């Protein structure tokens, strides 16, 4: 630990942060004509009530309406999202099992030695969904008032301050590492199965600090139930106008936004991938979805970004970027 963590922190300090299927005896369209003929399950790799779950439930009904079917959301927690991704990678490639995942899809290959799946080989991309700013937040009553105060406080109390996250490779874990790197500290990390339950503990005062997406923290910040020190994007978030950016607050190196995408197992018929992508694009253009996202500090991506091709290119780039950072840092998960 003594040599590993400084390397992790030093490396992270530098970061500003479809497969074809043979036609069967289905008329040659891979079964897409009647699709969907049964419920579609979107697997969420973190706890119910957390940010990934929230975004998934926002788009599930409009996507189902566009497809003329029903979508069920299932939470499969564990190991920073890799349990769910492994489960979907091994599912039937028939379009009925879909994965919602985020930036963790690109960090897992470098973080986990025995991952059991490869994002680019074992999945077909459906499209990007949204990019969510993060917030640096703390429990009510936590002494520091500003991000500069927080930095000084954690430096003086690093053996006591607890930092919640959703497991290795989760967005909260990566953002927390960047924060520790920028502050030059090593805090006591407390892993959860998602930042939904972590936020409950933060509000309850069981943990001190967390780095988490606005889709989870906005309501509690606005209600004054937790302290917000900064948002991790270059611009302030419209729904949180009083919260400064990390740059304004004196920590410009802490820049993270958390992209989310949809995936199906490789081998899913391209016609079905296209149907799902079209439904995603319709959901993202839905005014109710736009309004709900805006209230939580984010926005749908454009239709051009919500395509299989655009998101695959992004995923390739992100795997390269994070793979290098993580290899340089020497971070590993078991
Ligand atoms: C969640 O849904 O719990 C989060 O996306 C976890 C995280 O990545 O921090």
Automatic annotation (TrEMBL):
InterPro entries: BUG, Bug_dom1. Gene3D superfamilies: Bordetella uptake gene, domain 1, Periplasmic binding protein-like II. PROSITE patterns: PROKAR_LIPOPROTEIN. It holds the Pfam family TctC. It comes from the Bacteria. Belongs to the UPF0065 (bug) family. This is Tripartite-type tricarboxylate transporter, receptor component TctC. It comes from Actinoplanes flavus.
């Amino acid at each position: 630990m003594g040599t590993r963590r400084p390397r992790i922190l030093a490396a992270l300090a530098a970061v500003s942060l479809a497969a074809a299927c043979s036609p069967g005896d289905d008329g040659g369209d891979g079964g897409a004509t009647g699709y969907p003929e049964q419920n579609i399950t979107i697997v969420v790799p973190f706890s119910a009530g957390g940010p990934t779950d929230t975004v998934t439930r926002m788009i599930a009904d409009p996507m189902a309406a566009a497809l003329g079917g029903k979508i069920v959301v299932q939470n499969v927690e564990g190991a920073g999202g890799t349990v769910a991704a492994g489960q979907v990678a091994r599912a039937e490639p028939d379009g009925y099992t879909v994965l919602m995942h985020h930036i963790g899809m690109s960090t897992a290959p470098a973080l986990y030695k025995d991952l059991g799946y490869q994002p680019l080989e074992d999945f077909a991309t459906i499209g990007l969904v949204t990019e969510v700013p993060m917030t640096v937040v703390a429990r009510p009553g936590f002494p520091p008032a500003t991000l500069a105060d927080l930095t000084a406080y954690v430096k003086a109390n690093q053996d006591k301050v607890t930092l919640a996250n959703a497991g290795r490779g989760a967005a909260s874990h990566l953002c927390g590492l960047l924060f520790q790197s920028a502050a030059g500290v090593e805090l006591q990390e407390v892993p959860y199965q998602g930042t939904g339950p972590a936020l409950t503990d933060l509000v309850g005062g069981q943990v001190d600090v967390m780095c988490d997406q606005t889709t989870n923290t906005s309501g509690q910040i606005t209600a004054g139930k937790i302290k917000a020190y900064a948002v991790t994007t270059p611009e302030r978030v419209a729904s949180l106008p009083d919260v400064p950016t990390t740059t304004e607050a004196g920590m410009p190196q802490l820049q993270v936004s958390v992209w989310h995408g949809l995936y199906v197992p490789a081998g899913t018929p391209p016609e079905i991938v296209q149907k799902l992508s079209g439904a995603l694009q319709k959901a993202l253009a839905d005014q109710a979805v736009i309004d709900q996202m805006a209230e939580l500090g984010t926005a749908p991506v454009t239709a051009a970004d919500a395509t299989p091709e655009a998101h695959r290119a992004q995923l390739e780039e992100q795997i390269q970027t994070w793979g290098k950072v993580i290899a340089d840092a020497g971070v590993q998960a078991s």
